[in-house]
């Protein structure tokens, strides 16, 4: 069996080339506002409303302009806004509803007058009215079903419109990020080159960074064994700590007693020195010194008498 090929890693140059190519394609699909005409500009809700506004402005005279249209008073100089278009749509729906009602009323009056003044007059029987009512019921049911279908279609279109708007905004954001990608790739390439130079400079001082895998694993094992030995010694010292602490406390007590004795001895020595100095100043002999001389003389006499060699 042949050895499987490892996936090739894309180089920074290829990534930069691909990013530039994708950015060029996006810019060709969405031309800039400065070089594109109105027909080539991106589709927006304002552009979609242009035919409606143009037809409405051409069909209505200035004197017949409606007063309920808020777009006449709140329309900004730059053109219609989504809120004004929504108000216009609601107004047109009301107008079409009134127009339909007026049309049905006029047609019904015309039929009634023709039926009366006709020769012979048109007489409608109750059976024909019942059949007409049945057909009207069927037509109303079909109309209601069609209205529900249209409402569902409108909801679906609105949902798709919102989704497409979100996708369009996302594509615009990603296009901006894609335009920044080549510069970021160049900065990263310079940073990688700088790090490689620093690594080459520091290779001489730290040779263990360039060891092969086997020696690196061996060095890691040795460091782990050293750490385990240090952990064992640390555990032993922790176990010995209470006993050493008690021993230190005992020695501190002994030192305190010795310090007290030392203080007493130093005080006695100072007192003896002071008394001797006082006697010497008066050309006399200190009592302790005279007693010491007497003891030494007595010791010498006794040794001579008993024949003890000193």
Could you explain how this protein is built, in words?
The protein is mostly helical. Helices cover about 75% and strands about 0% of the residues. It has helices spanning about 10-30, 45-50, 50-60, 70-75, 80-115, 125-200, 215-280, 285-305. The two termini are about 110 Å apart. About 0% of the residues are buried.
Percent of residues in β-strands: under 5%
Q: How large is the radius of gyration?
A: 57 Å
Question: Low-confidence parts, pLDDT < 50 over ≥5 residues?
Answer: 1-7, 32-41, 59-77
Helix percentage:
over 70%
Report the strand count.
Answer: 0
State the end-to-end distance.
108 Å
Write down the secondary-structure element order.
HHHHHHHH
Overall SS class: mainly alpha
* Main sheet properties: none
How many helices? The count is 8
What would you call the shape?
Answer: elongated
Q: What does the average pLDDT come to?
A: 76
Sequence-ordered SSE layout with sheet pairings:
Layout: H1 12-29, H2 45-48, H3 50-59, H4 71-74, H5 82-117, H6 126-202, H7 213-281, H8 287-306
Helix pairs in contact: 1-6
Brief sketch in words of this structure:
This is Kinetochore protein Sos7 coiled-coil domain-containing protein. By secondary structure, the protein is mostly helical.
